[in-house]
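Entry, Tuesday afternoon. Goal for today is a structural model of the target with flavin-adenine dinucleotide bound, before we commit to ordering more compound. Inputs were pasted exactly as handed over by J.K., no edits. I checked the ligand SMILES twice against the vendor sheet because last time a stereocentre got dropped in transcription.
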Amino acid sequence: MSVLIFAEQNGGQLAAASRSAVTCGLELAETVDVLITGADCKPVAAEAAALRGVGRVLVAEADHLGAALAENVAPIIQREAQGYLYVLAGANSNGKNIMPRVAAGLGVQQISDIVSVIDGETFIRPIYAGNALARVRSVDSTRVITVRPTAFEPATGTDGSAAIEAVDPGADSGLVEHQGFQLSGGSGPELGSADIVISGGRGVGSAENFALVTRLAERLNAAVGASRAAVDAGYVPNDYQVGQTGKVVAPALYLAVGISGAIQHMAGMRDSRVIAAINNDPEAPIFEVADYGLVQDLMSALEELEGILATTSSPLGKSA
Amino acid sequence: MKVLVGVKRVVDAYVKIRVRGDGSGVDTANAKMSMNPFDEVALEAAVRLQESGVVTEVLAVSVGPASAHEQLRTALAMGATRALHVAADPALEPLAVAHTLQGICDREAPDLVLLGKQAIDDDCNQTGQMLAALQGWAQATSVSGLELDAGGASVTREIDGGLEHLALRLPAVVSVDLRLNDPRHPKLPDIMKAKRAQIETLTLEELGVDPEPRLSVLEVTEPPRREPGVRVSTVGELVERLRNEAGVLS
Ligand SMILES: Cc1cc2nc3c(=O)[nH]c(=O)nc-3n(C[C@H](O)[C@H](O)[C@H](O)COP(=O)(O)OP(=O)(O)OC[C@H]3O[C@@H](n4cnc5c(N)ncnc54)[C@H](O)[C@@H]3O)c2cc1C
Ligand SMILES: Nc1ncnc2c1ncn2[C@@H]1O[C@H](COP(=O)(O)O)[C@@H](O)[C@H]1O
């Protein structure tokens, strides 16, 4: 009874960020319990119950929980948190939105976006856009924590058999009305968990040119990312943004094309295993962190890349 | 309607910070300080609502050292109606800031609280959600679209998969993302006028806030440095090295 994970679904599946939170929880205790809220939770509850290390799965199911509004979900987490020492969630958009509301309800100071567990009360979290790492110790009786997904491998396993229990879904708060999602719905792998990420910046120049980046990503089964400048210029939707205020990624390969390497951009990709950069300015700061740097016009480089890959690799990218 | 805007004094976004060698923290002594960039966006949104006649009063609030007067004067120059400083040194954690803002909400009864989505020093992304919880109000975070009328607020939020549209009952707390607007640069006459303007003050005691931190920072270190890489001279060489040296391409 010491770790509760608030887990969420993503297209009917347990979100990768929630699986990472489970892994983090298993560093704090031998088993963890999982709380799921939503309008239809059955497939996700079954998925969570099968994970290695999960003790119980609590499910709050009702129509008004379909959109994960903080006003409706936080009181459920707060109520179920009684008796737990830790309440964890992935630091994705739902976790960031909901968990501080839970923490304030419990009267505790949340620990945001941790990247490692030192011991039961000490954690490491990045500050100043990842330019410093703070080791912090919490004195609160319940520790409400969001977990940086890229810092913990997503939990796996399909042989667990946790009990699934229904809990009170509460009532709609009446404070907020959900009026719809407008999802960008790309077809490739998820930006947060892809093996390869190819990001384009302002240097790409236009939405039409950005299609070259997207095509290359498709060929490599890579996710497409972008700098804030590229998003603001309208080349791609907002949820492609990588950085301090966008998504944090840590793929095996991050290829930055026409991105200068501002502090705020690096905050979102500096933990990638291999960084490669294509930029026509030899002085661009991105080259200070790139393992492989190519000084060249990006249009010609993208065309050559496509040519080489077309003749020498399978369209599925990285093979086993 | 009345809007309260949170204004935090932070190290400027374009300063490369220095971590102290002894692990005691980040050296901010001589760094350029600014208004948190997200708070500039929040303030700009409030001022535009005032200019369009929907809002009649914009109260800028900063909790922090006396030097935060500088950022409050910037807020006044940008168009805030009033500025309020709550002295707190050392800095408060988000929960204590939320308690402070709660105390101010009780006195001022704003219809809307506009904050930044995160402070770029602590990167917590908590204060707005905490204030909403303490008040039992509606919340919307990472907002990139905002319309306000007496009936409520219509907002667009940036979320992982795209956008979400919400209608909030007032009063509410909204935390803003950078794409909501482009904050103005205050004009010289407004800057001069703001220099002479009065800044109201309140103490944590008057607001009944316990400033005691719940998190102690044991050590601050630099993240591991990346070894300098190599320059390749052709696309062919890049692909060859990514495949055979790094093993990240098939
Ligand atoms: C509070 C705050 C938060 C922020 N958060 C984020 C964030 O989360 N993510 C983020 O990305 N940014 C963020 N930013 C913005 C950030 O500071 C930079 O402005 C942004 O990252 C720049 O994007 P860019 O590298 O695409 O554009 P630029 O800096 O304009 O760089 C474009 C690059 O393309 C190169 N180039 C141009 N033409 C070509 C060509 N033909 N061939 C090859 N190379 C070419 C240029 O040499 C240049 O290096 C934030 C800023 C603030 C203040
Ligand atoms: N000391 C403060 N004074 C005024 N506003 C603050 C303060 N701290 C946080 N805020 C507001 O809360 C937002 C989020 O901060 P944080 O939760 O620390 O990331 C900021 O963008 C500000 O709008």
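Helices of chain B lie at 37-51, 69-78, 94-108, 127-135, 188-196, 204-207, 235-244.
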